[in-house]
Structure formats: structure tokens, C-alpha cells
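[Automated response] Your request has been received and processed.

Submitted sequence:
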Amino acid sequence: MGCPLMGLFGAEDRFPSTEQTAVLEKELTRLGRTFEFHTYDDAGHAFFDRHLGSAA
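Generated structure:
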């Protein structure tokens, strides 16, 4: 079945948007894939990039 998937998303990011993330979550569930998604409020794109400092 493959490895479990993890998604870390910023709620203010436009790609993927929260709507796109919801579609992906629905499709992964339909396919029976194991995944864990976390969406962080007040965070944009690349908020975990240590080279950007505090991008959130």
C-alpha cells in the first residue's frame, strides 16, 4: 500500500488551498490510504523553512 502520508499545511496558503486539501483528503480516504494532515492557522506557504525565519 505504500508509506503513510503526512501533510503540513498553512491555512493562509493558496496552493494548496484549504479546499484543495479537502479534495485530496477525500480522495486518499476513498483509496484507503493512510495519511495525517495538519493545517496551521495564521501560516502561509513554506512556514517550516528554517531559512525564511518566521514566515507564519
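Summary generated for your ticket: The chain is about 25% helix and 20% strand. The chain has a mean pLDDT of 82.
If you did not submit this request, please reply to this message.
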